[in-house]
Amino acid sequence: MFEAISEAPPDAILGLLEAYRQDPNPEKINLSVGVYQDEEGRTPVMRSVKAAEEQIWKSESTKSYLGIAGAPEYASVVQEMLLQGGVSKSLRSRLVTVQTPGGTGALRVAADFLSQHFPQSRVWLSTPTWPNHPTIFSAAGLEVLTYPYFEAEKHALDWSGMAAALETTRPGDVVVLHGCCHNPTGVDLAPEQWRQVAEILDKTGAMPLLDFAYQGFGEGLVEDAAGLRELMNRELDMLVASSFSKNFGLYRDRVGALSALCSTAEAGSAVLSQIKRAIRANYSNPPAHGALIVSTVFQDETLRGEWEQEVAEIRQRLNGVREMFAQALEAEGIERDFSHIRRQRGMFSFSGLEPNHIAALREKYSIYMVGSGRINVAGINRQNIGPLCRAIKEVLAEPTGR
Ligand SMILES: Cc1ncc(COP(=O)(O)O)c(C=O)c1O
Q1: What is the b/e burial string over 76-115, where b = at least 16 CB atoms within 10 angstroms of the residue's CB?
Q2: Domain 11-45+304-396 maps to which CATH number in 3.40.390.30, 3.20.20.80, 3.90.1150.10, 3.20.20.70?
Q3: CATH says 65-299 is which class?
Q4: Is the CB of 243 under 6 A from ligand 1?
Q5: pLDDT tens digits, residue range 306-364?
Q6: pLDDT tens, position by position, 156-180
Q7: Is 208 a pocket residue for ligand 1 (Cβ < 6 Å)?
Q8: pTM of the model
């Protein structure tokens, strides 16, 4: 049977990481994969996480299975994290949450649930989006459509294109929105635009699915949930896929959650039971350790304070690097305008560099970035910023069409 199987192409982003690892150049720079790095290029375990793990190690008494939906106290923590900053109280009884292996697990469970109950659903994704989005929804058998999001020439949101496309959605459609720190562009909706998106979807009957993987990396933990609050307070049915890979640094522990906001508590109970069915057929029940860390940190006042401080440090570093990068490019005397890097938010910046520049950066300077020109700004530090900006200047000066 296996002789007919052909080689699958490498993952667009993880394949680059592999190439970076194998590159012998000691000056190589990795701006590709979406993992936070500190000034020293490390991805450390957070202090609050280490402290929680110590508590867990001392008190954990079993490794028996969790329930299909995961730990109930974790579900409460996730809801608190989403709802802080003010949403109507009545909403809580209609919000159901399950623990999932990462944000990817949440998206896949959502996709399986949708394809089981709404097989005609069309899933709308922004252009561009995280490359795994179309893969996940197509794998579940759903039709994937796209809406315009980014205007490359202006390095800004294509608001009129986006709004016009959303106006054409219909009941049963699902619109995937990035909660904050849009991956890959770093361009987010303004509060007024969130309000208008909620209004449009309310009118067309399409359902929002908020992918929330970077809460706290943009403006703040509460501020970054402004779009979520706008959608929730509009009383739309909606799904939220949370990931704590980035804001707790728990990448390999696979911690996420899927929440569904329903119009009645009865609908919530039925939806929860069907989501559990999708999980049972998928991975049966979630891994415990990472979620236990998140609950332990969030429920302990001191650890929570420490974690909030650590998230603030990450956010400040990301915004500081953006400023430093934009200034350093200007100081190189590059004519091209890179001021958009300052305005973008989160871990990613859409540099605006073209495929020939990106290839030249990789081949000549061992600088790795995703083919779309997405840069992980966390990969930039005081050591590599000089060589990086000089390399960008040189590839921009090369005649095109090499
Ligand atoms: C937009 C977006 N959604 C979801 C995820 C999923 O994260 P994970 O499955 O690692 O929790 C990521 C991770 O890169 C992401 O960028």
Answers
A1: ebbbebbbeeebeeeeeebbbbbbbbbbbbbbbbbbbbbb
A2: 3.90.1150.10
A3: alpha beta
A4: yes
A5: 999 999 999 999 999 999 999 999 999 888 888 899 999 999 998 889 999 999 999 99
A6: 999 999 999 999 999 999 999 999 9
A7: no
A8: 0.95
